[in-house]
Amino acid sequence: MSEAIRLLIADDEDLFRGALSALLDLEEDLTVVAEAATSTNAVRLALRHRPDIAVLDLEMPPADGLSAAERIRAELPCRVVLVTRHARPGVLRRALSAGVSGFVPKTTRADRLAEIIREIAAGRRYVDPDIAASALTEDHCPLSGRELEVLRATRTGASVNDIAALVHLAPGTVRNYLSAAMAKTGTSSRHAAAHRAWEEGWI
């Protein structure tokens, strides 16, 4: 038999990660060499164990699976599969640009994921059809240029006063733009609005 495909499994949900690792490890040609509960540990363990493929949860803290994927890809000849509950078009585009090889929903059966892993190990890419369809039918951005500007600054962790200085506006004006952006994105905080805009690929 040819050498087994070495896997890193990273997900912050212990039950999901443990079950997925156990099921994939049952496959004769797959072996799980490491498990991680955070994106930081995913990168650290990837560098230590040098897996062939890293299966990463997109929503994993403290950053996210995409950030971990970018760091792993920059350091290793490791292919990456991102697993997610919901994928916005902007995230899919960023993932493909970062060289991610697979994009699958968490509803994917373990035996189907094993097949996808084999395809990716053979050099192919796989994007779930429903995720791909959503990327092709993405919504038009409802935010104005100024609203996008203040949300972009919000993503850096800047305070309202810092954002105001950066974009040369009064703090009250910045708050107004942030409130409008929150209303348009259906979110309850400026950070959530900024994250939604990032997911959609608007910023």
What topology does this entry show?
Layout: E1 5-10, H1 14-25, E2 30-36, H2 39-49, E3 53-57, H3 65-75, E4 79-84, H4 89-97, E5 102-105, H5 110-121, E6 126-127, H6 129-136, H7 145-154, H8 160-167, H9 171-185, H10 190-200
Parallel strand pairs: 1-2, 1-3, 3-4, 4-5, 5-6
Helix pairs in contact: 2-3, 4-6, 7-8, 7-9, 7-10, 8-9, 9-10
Characterize the structure shown:
The structure is a single chain. By secondary structure, the chain is α/β, with parallel strands linked by helices. The termini are far apart. The chain has a six-stranded parallel β-sheet, sandwiched between helices. The mean pLDDT is 90. It has helices at 14-25, 39-49, 65-75, 89-97, 110-121, 129-136, 145-154, 160-167, 171-185, 190-200, and strands spanning 5-10, 30-36, 53-57, 79-84, 102-105, 126-127. Helix 7 crosses helix 9 and helix 9 packs across helix 10 (190-200). It has two domains: 5-136, Rossmann fold; 145-200, Winged helix-like DNA-binding domain superfamily/Winged helix DNA-binding domain (Arc Repressor Mutant, subunit A), CATH 1.10.10. It contains ten helices and six strands; from the N terminus they run βαβαβαβαβαβααααα.
By CATH reckoning, the class of the largest domain would read Alpha Beta
Per CATH, the superfamily of the largest domain is: Response regulator
**Sheet bearing the most strands, described?**
6 strands, parallel
Number of helical elements: 10
